[in-house]
Amino acid sequence: MMQMDIAQNEFLKPYNSFGVAAEARYFMRVRREDELIQIFGNPDWEQQSKLVLGGGTNMLFVDNFNGLLLKMDIPGIRSTKNGLKVLVSAGAGVLWNDLVGYCVNHGFAGIENMALIPGTAGAAPVQNIGAYGVELMDVFDSCRAFDTHRKEMVSLKKADCGFAYRDSIFKHQEKNRYIVTEISLMLSLHPIIHSDYGAIQAELEARGISHPGIKDMAEVVSHIRLAKLPDPSTIGNAGSFFKNPIIPQVLFEELNRRFPEIVHYPAGEGLVKLAAGWLIEYCGWKGKRLGAVGTWKNQALVLVNHGGASGREIYQFSAAIMEDVKNTFGIQLEREVNVIGALD
Q1: Is residue 205 part of a domain?
Q2: What is the spatial distance between Cα 60 and Cα 233, in angstroms, rounded to a whole number?
Q3: Residue 197 has what pLDDT?
Q4: CB neighbours of 133 closer than 8 A, spacing ≥ 6?
Q5: Could you confirm whether 261 is annotated as catalytic?
Q6: Catalytic pick from 32, 222, 313, 336?
Q7: Which domain covers residue 33, as residue numbers?
Q8: What average pLDDT does the structure give for the chain?
């Protein structure tokens, strides 16, 4: 049995995009699937609480983690063509934007609208990431994962994952059961361009592009995201902090009478998606700062750490926003980030 490299009292500030100070009692980099089999099969670690970390771009540590943190660093991208389709597989530790770049450079279409989304490939199905009219579930084929119940590697197809808007079985029904080690996406050599969003159309027109390719789309989306969202390397943030709420059409019509300018999108039969950023901005929170915590000046949906804020302070700031939105609109916002630690 190979020796496992496990560190103690690991400082987690470099591993979370909010840049908050926290520690993990034990810390292990996972570079191969067999390392998971080994750690979960070791009786010395069986009772230890465990936390899986990808890029740390969707976590808020409000406390230290008193257990074993598994940092997923499995590398590698490979592809197999079949006619006009191509199956692209990526290790859980591959940065999502690196995977987008690989696919765009090889002419594999389907994820170009998700350029510059932070995080890793392994974390992508947990959140069912998406942007500008495209979601991971649109191209997801399958994933390999370690089943912590059965203590073995399994393959999960799209139908097994219970995908919904920013949701999956990995967040709810089977939370903490599966550790994704590799994802496989079914992409196309015949691109279908999704340029319906106003911001994309405007930027394409500004660039004089009437028939965009996937490279154009990735560049335009990256440009828009950089203009709207802060860079985690310069100011701590986790991107969108809240989900866009989806409400029944009947409730929307009532809200629309009171707030005719409310920003909304169709979300399926009898459902409407509201822009959480607009709700927050309407309540006066855009660019607001309390101590070291604030909302981003260009996008109220993004909470930022101006330097030195604790995870608990960021959490309390988000709670104040949620209360204000609830009192104003009767809408209960839901956090998109995972909150790690006790709040007592």
Answers
A1: no
A2: 16
A3: 82
A4: 113, 194, 196, 197
A5: no
A6: 336
A7: 6-72
A8: 94
What ranges make up the beta strands (E) of the chain?
6-11, 23-30, 50-53, 59-61, 65-72, 77-82, 85-91, 130-131, 134-135, 140-147, 152-157, 178-188, 236-240, 246-248, 264-266, 271-274, 289-290, 293-296, 299-305, 338-340
Q: Which amino acid does the sequence have at 191? A: P
Strands 271-274 and 264-266 come out as antiparallel
Structural domain contains residue 140? yes
Task: Given the residues 168, 184, 240, 318, select the one marked as catalytic.
Answer: 240
Length of the chain: 344
Give me the catalytic one of 112, 144, 166, 219: 166
Residues 243 and 328 in one domain: yes
Q: For residues 15 and 96, state if they share a domain.
A: no
Do 116 and 182 sit in the same domain of this protein?
yes
Q: Is residue 247 part of a domain?
A: yes
Would residue 113 count as lying in a domain? yes
Question: Tell me, what's the pLDDT at 222?
Answer: 95
Distant-in-sequence, close-in-space partners of 308: CB < 8 Å, separation ≥ 6 = 292
Whether 166 is catalytic is yes
Place of tokens 């908050």: 20
**What CATH number did the domain enclosing 314 receive?**
3.90.78.10
Provide the CATH number for the domain around residue 103: 3.30.465.10
- Of 15, 39, 72, the residue at which a domain comes to its end is 72
Among 72, 99, 118, residue at a domain's last position: 72
Residues 62 and 82 grouped into a single domain? no
Distance CA 316, CA 342 (A): 13
Active-site residue 336, yes or no? yes
pLDDT in tens, 7-55: 999 999 999 999 999 999 999 999 999 999 999 999 989 889 999 999 9
Which amino acid is present at 205?
E
Measured CA to CA, the distance from residue 338 to residue 340 in angstroms comes to 6
pLDDT reported for residue 166 = 84
